[in-house]
């Protein structure tokens, strides 16, 4: 299994850059985490609590976190199935998720840390207009720097297209793949 773990705080560019990665190379696609709760739903598989409890009982939950009054889950079967047809791009905002996922889902993961200055993130959060600015800024402040990334990209210094191209190039070098 091969894929990308895209780590960063809210508004660091995970979604925007993933869309650009998908445009550049159709083998890459956003892994849509399971979500229980309200709020944004476009990038998630929204389910009810009983579905999540069933996943837990079958040992399918690899990572679970709570934020913005919702529960977000990376499920084993979801990632494995997606990896059969391409390269999943998994969004993460908690440092401890990375070793948990790489140990549970053995394979070759490119670990990418997205950063940007707080002021740029704040403007992006406000521009989103999701109504939860305070919670997102708090999450931004709580997101720890990642010292062991394979690649770190300052999204305040490059365009999303440049970041996507850099990530695909790093993935290709690491995997020996000809993706470019």
Walk me through what this model shows.
Helices cover about 40% and strands about 25% of the residues. The model has no long low-confidence stretch (mean pLDDT about 90). It has a domain at about 1-35 and about 85-175: P-loop containing nucleotide triphosphate hydrolases (Rossmann fold). The longest helix is centred in the C-terminal third of the chain and has 16 residues, at about 160-175. By secondary structure, the protein is α/β, with parallel strands linked by helices. Strand 5 (about 60-65) and strand 6 form a beta hairpin.
Note the topology.
Layout: E1 2-7, H1 14-24, E2 28-30, E3 33-37, E4 44-46, H2 49-57, E5 61-67, E6 70-75, H3 76-84, E7 87-92, H4 97-104, E8 108-115, H5 118-128, H6 133-142, E9 151-154, H7 160-175
Parallel strand pairs: 1-7, 1-8, 2-7, 3-4, 8-9
Antiparallel strand pairs: 3-6, 5-6
Helix pairs in contact: 1-7, 5-6
CA(first)-CA(last) distance: 19 Å
- Trace the largest sheet across and list its strands: 2-7-1-8-9
Most strands sheet: 5 strands, parallel
Total strand segments: 9
**Ranges with pLDDT <50 over ≥5 residues?**
none
CATH class of the domain at 2-33 and 86-175: Alpha Beta
How much strand content do the residues show?
25-35%
CATH superfamily of the domain at 2-33 and 86-175: P-loop containing nucleotide triphosphate hydrolases
CATH architecture of the domain at 2-33 and 86-175: 3-Layer(aba) Sandwich
Helix count from the secondary structure assignment: 7
Oligomeric state as shown: single chain
Radius of gyration: 16 Å
- Overall structural class, as computed from helix and strand content, comes to alpha/beta
Could you state the order of secondary-structure elements as H and E? Answer: EHEEEHEEHEHEHHEH
